[in-house]
Amino acid sequence: MSAADVVEPSAPLSRRARKWRLGRERALTGLTVAGLFLAWLLSTHYGLVNPLFLPSPAAVWTAFVRTATEGYQGSLLHEHLLASLGRVLTGYVLACAIGIPLGIVMGLSRDVKAVFDPVIEFYRPLPPLALYTLIVMWLGIGDTSKVALLFLAALPPLTISSMQAAAGVDPRFVKAARSLGAGKAQLFRHVFLPACLPGICTGMRISLGFTYTVLVAAEIVAATAGLGWMIWDASKFLISDVVIMGLFVLALTGVALDFAIRRCERALTPWRFR
Amino acid sequence: MTTKRTSLWTLAALAAGLVFAAPAGAQDKPAAITIGYLNLVNAQLVTKALGLHEKESGVPIKWVKFGSGGDVNRAVAANQIDFGGVGNPPFAIGVTRDLPYTGIFVLNMLGPVEALVVRTDKNIKSMKDLVGKQGGAPFGSTTHYLFIAALREAGVDPNSVKLLDLSPSDAVAAWMRKDIDAAWVWEPNLDKMVKSGGEILLDSGEMAKRGYPTWDIGVVMNDFAKKYPTAVAAYLRAECAGIDFWLKNPEETVKLVAKELSLPEADAARMIKGTRVVPCAEQITADYLGTTQNKGKFADTMLATATFLKDQGRLPAVKSLADYAGFIDPGYLQKVVGK
């Protein structure tokens, strides 16, 4: 579905041609996945790589089952997952609640933009880990500092995309609505919001993806549960099957989150997907 | 499309070239040497400050500082250093996991330089008082191992203490904010906690007397040692010269260490007292590495450490004593000290 959305055929294709094309794309995707898996299977089976660096698929699967049923260092796999999701979503939802309205206001008022822009532009390019040492000193080693780091990672993409979306609303729409007698509330509800939503949604998607990538960094200091921590701790003890299993869980969860937010996007801005 | 394909092929060709080019240039001298050193107080600081490695090997030396042995193990797994240093628990972990390195000399025996510091106002007088308290140690290091060992010795369930994975510098930050009540770390960070409302409850020297010796061992990557045996000998000559200097010139050593760590000389002097550095000739006796024919007590300590870590669910299996002894090679040092 997504691939078909992105690829814009130069000439309109017939239904059959489109179906064939979609089938071909899926087959190619399947081939890549199968090929990678086969390479993994064979290279570990024939001992081509040190199992420390690349454990076999069977070892990773065993690590998955073991962690799901017996746990890793005191927490079951789903508990690690929930701890991480809790942190990511708390930071992300807070960032949405503050970042989106702030971005819209910044897009509409150049004065507000002048106030907040330097702050966001200054810390945005900082690597999360560098920022984290300072946050730990300020907020301690508990969950507050972890959520704060995720919040700070989530904020800039949200604010910037909301700002651009609000600033980019076609003035003709505004004029047209005004001439029809729309008040401020109506203008916001019926013109600004629908016009901004696609841009905001894109920002939300980018932001969630970025926040998720900061998770491991956020859980390095003094966590006792969480997927990122599990991967970090296992790498300290060179337990590579747990590391790779953790990465798979992390990746699949990331894909699921992205899928969920795309669904939201479809529900909120249905006209873009017609 | 075409450009993309071409660049991909170029990339693949480059990668293949790198893989095959690496072992081709075998010479007796490497172009440069990367030494990973632990952020603690021992004679390696003197060796570094005096530039002894540059003198002995005649090639540029790159020093990389590591917070704990667990990080060194990662760097070894990624093949990013030539020489490194690890404590016995990370060494036992690395060896059990078949990391391609070998222990070649004793960096130091751990004594009061590592200690369990507790918050004075919390009235913690024994290990039992730590139940329900928040503690910190770098996981996988000597002090994490001793923290759990000391709790078990005192009959306290290690799970009844909230133990957090903190590097010594993070532990200081957490301590200053009163997030933790106890931490087992090493100098120079240990002192910062003692100075801000802490007192020492137990130290690694005391644990050694109770049968939990801890030490840091200098390691070399196997491929490097095979390719440049003379560079390994030069490395050990420099380290032994540093150890000699440390033992024979205590006043100069204090000055050098104080400068390396940006500390007042009085603090450096105390930290130096807490570390025991072993003369190279003594390192090949039964109490330490032993000889290639008769391996010393270090191998026994590794087996004991690995067994302990397996009980903690940190290692899947334990190797045999002979296997652990195989990862210690006193041969290079024997040649350097002429025995």
From TrEMBL, chain A:
Gene Ontology BP annotations: alkanesulfonate transmembrane transport; cellular response to sulfur starvation
Main location: membrane
GO cellular component terms, semicolon-separated: plasma membrane
Source superkingdom: Bacteria
Keywords carried by this UniProt record: Cell membrane, Membrane, Transmembrane, Transmembrane helix, Transport
Spans through the membrane: 27-48, 89-110, 122-141, 147-169, 210-232, 238-261
Subcellular localization, as worded in the UniProt entry: Cell membrane
Matching PROSITE patterns: ABC_TM1 (PS50928)
Domain ABC transmembrane type-1 intervals: 81-261
Entries under SUPFAM superfamilies matching the protein: MetI-like
Topological relation to the membrane, as annotated: Multi-pass membrane protein
InterPro entries cross-referenced by the UniProt entry: MetI-like (IPR000515), MetI-like_sf (IPR035906)
Function: Probably part of an ABC transporter complex. Probably responsible for the translocation of the substrate across the membrane.
Family, similarity comment: Belongs to the binding-protein-dependent transport system permease family.
UniProt-listed PANTHER family: ALKANE SULFONATE ABC TRANSPORTER-RELATED, MEMBRANE SUBUNIT, TAURINE TRANSPORT SYSTEM PERMEASE PROTEIN TAUC
Protein name: Taurine transport system permease protein
Organism of derivation: Aquabacter spiritensis
From TrEMBL, chain B:
Chief subcellular location: periplasm
Family in the record: Belongs to the bacterial solute-binding protein SsuA/TauA family.
InterPro entries assigned: Peri-bd_TauA, Solute-binding_3/MltF_N, SsuA/THI5
GO cellular component, one term: periplasmic space
Annotated GO biological process: alkanesulfonate transmembrane transport
The keyword Signal is assigned to this record: yes
Annotated Solute-binding protein family 3/N-terminal domain residues: 32-250
Superkingdom field: Bacteria
Segments crossing the lipid bilayer: none
Keyword vocabulary terms for this entry: Signal
Cross-referenced Pfam families: NMT1 (PF09084)
Keyword Signal: yes
Extent of the signal sequence: 1-21
Localization annotation: Periplasm
Designated name of the protein: Taurine transport system substrate-binding protein
Stored CDD domains: PBP2_taurine
